[in-house]
Amino acid sequence: MRRLDDVIPAPVSVTPADGADFTITADTRVQAGPGAAEVAAFLGLPLSEDGVVRFALGGDGPDESYELDITAGGVAVTAPAPAGLFNAVQTIKQLRGDDGTLPGGRIADRPRFAYRGVMLDVARHFFTVDEVKAYIDAIVAFKINHLHLHLSDDQGWRLEIAGWPRLTEVSGQSGTGVDGEGPGFYTGDHYTELVRYAAERFVTIVPEIDMPGHVNAAQFAYPSLTADGQPIAQRTDTEVGYSSLVAGSETTYAFVEDVIREVAALTPGPFLHIGGDEAQATAAEDYRTFMTRVLPLVGKYGKRAVGWHEMAAVDLPDTAVPQFWRTEAADEGTARAVASGSQVIMSPADRTYLDMKYDPDFRLGLDWAGCVELDRAYDWDPADRLPGVPEHALLGVEAALWSETLRSLADVQTMTFPRLPAIAEIGWSPRSARDWQSFRRRVATYAPRWQEAGIAFHRTPTVDWV
Ligand code: TNX
After folding, report:
1. How many angstroms separate the alpha carbon of residue 243 from the centre of ligand 1?
2. Whose CA is nearest to atom 13 of ligand 1?
3. Cβ(186) to ligand 1 under 6 A?
4. Which of 79, 220, 288, 298 ranks highest by number of CB atoms within 10 Å?
């Protein structure tokens, strides 16, 4: 049987009760109050009006909070909103032992940060709708609530855009991706289906179109977007920082506005990520010109701009969100953005980059930010990371998975697990509830569960796997 605190991320409050265990059997039914049935169904038990596992909306607190009471007679789940009930389902699934028994007691839980994300790079290597759905299924177990899709880069463009069909006809087809080995793209319908599937599981999709750099695929498809209007070569190597949209060209802004309008229209969530990283091929003055034109476009189409923290080189609207990704101990632009009212997403590469190798001999991944073993991913705090970026300035944390070296869903899962659960705990649990020894003991119990679910993971030697 599991212990009541065998949960990742660690809940805010756990009060075990002796002799109050409850066993879910083939006869166990769920009783769902008004508005609770759809979410309760994720537990996978039949509904019935006299069920003893009771789901109800009620109480107050943040939407994602919940209370869970396990007694010998049944289970009571209460949350102010469906998102909280869904989180409770995840906790129950984690607590359920092989024989169906749930340990007795009470859990009251709520997130530390509103934004707990993971980024998947579908540009360097494309992943299909079904693969992304499988990924969503695996991440929601850890209460991750945002999936950021890196939809465009030098090696490929992965979302169909009306009016600019060659983006995907040319740069989403065979021959695209790193070494030409990651072809594919989402039609508008594919993307809409992903958004719907994610939303059903309380995950918000954050689409990224990376600009003004990382645009070789767009320029290969449309030479009118280059500086001299001449065709350029396709690139499928892993160099960065060589391509740029032209800041002084109206064609650029016509293109960018069409893309932002389309992506915004397809995306119900509040965020639209405009990249902005590694623009070494854009002069500093041009970068400012570009961002100053483009940031208001995101607002014009009703979205909050997220951008890699280089974006903070310009004065940001306070709704804009810089995402810190580097390894340096300080960043002036990000601190300045906070001083003028912005919130920040923390993704320091030396802690949260899931594409870094676990150890120097690891067969997948890169190592420019060093190796990221599980304890490195776990043992840090986002509120201590940057001067001028305290707790209240943090929207949350995000782990990023770049796909230069990844070729399959199994590769993606291997890099994600067990490191994403570490980042998920940083994003959800109070600092006081976090402890490396406790985490490594809890995560050890996932080996058989991931195995059974067909989810690949890395058996890091830092954990005594069950
Ligand atoms: C840096 S992180 C990049 C990406 C690469 C990644 C590889 C960031 C905003 N830019 O273009 O894929 O490193 O780790």
Report:
1. 14
2. 402
3. no
4. 79
Q: Which of 209, 308, 334, 402 to mutate to test the pocket of ligand 1 (most atoms within 8 A of CB)?
A: 402
Among 131, 193, 257, 278, the one annotated catalytic:
278
- pTM (whole model) above 0.90: yes
Q: Output the CATH code of domain 115-436.
A: 3.20.20.80
- Catalytic-residue membership of 49: no
For the chain, domain boundaries: 13-109, 115-436
Query: Spelled out in words, what is the top-level CATH class assigned to the domain 13-109?
Result: alpha beta
Average pLDDT over residues 8-23: 98
pLDDT tens digits, residue range 173-192? 999 999 999 999 999 999 99
| Cβ 131 under 6 angstroms from ligand 1 | no
Asked if domains 13-109 and 115-436 share a fold, the reply is: no
List beta partners, residue 275. Answer: 211
For residue 6, the CA-to-ligand 1 centroid distance in Å is 34
Confidence of residue 31 (pLDDT cuts 50, 70, 90): very high
